[in-house]
Amino acid sequence: MSEPIGRPDRSIGELVGEIGEDLSKLFRQEVALARAEIKEEARKAAKAGGMFGGAGFAGVMTAVLLSLALVFGLANVMDAGWASLIVAALWAVAGAVLYGKGRTLAREVSVKPEQTVETLKEDARWARDLTR
């Protein structure tokens, strides 16, 4: 027969105490990991929100400038109206680009801390194997 690993004279109380300390340390590490993952996802969500805000502002500018262009264009068909139309078209392009970037960033945001969930599953399997 082989000897047990570690000190053979350790009491059950010491072993239970070590298991408790290990589980406590593991829990703290899992909480720290979840906190880091959530902070990273919040950063991504904030960027996406900024892009949507920019797209909203561009949309308002488009509406204002298109309205002015229509007024000037219909009122007296002057160069100022067509210039406003060109500027409004540029704002529409800017809004479309910002919206597209914001949508791409929003798709990358994960509300579930994937890595933490996976390590918690591994921890559960490890604890289950200990009891067998």
Automatic annotation (TrEMBL):
Name of the molecule in the record: Integral membrane protein
Organism for this UniProt entry: Nonomuraea dietziae
Keywords (A to Z) from UniProt: Membrane, Transmembrane, Transmembrane helix
Pfam family, one: Phage_holin_3_6
Residue intervals passing through the bilayer: 52-75, 81-100
Domain of life: Bacteria
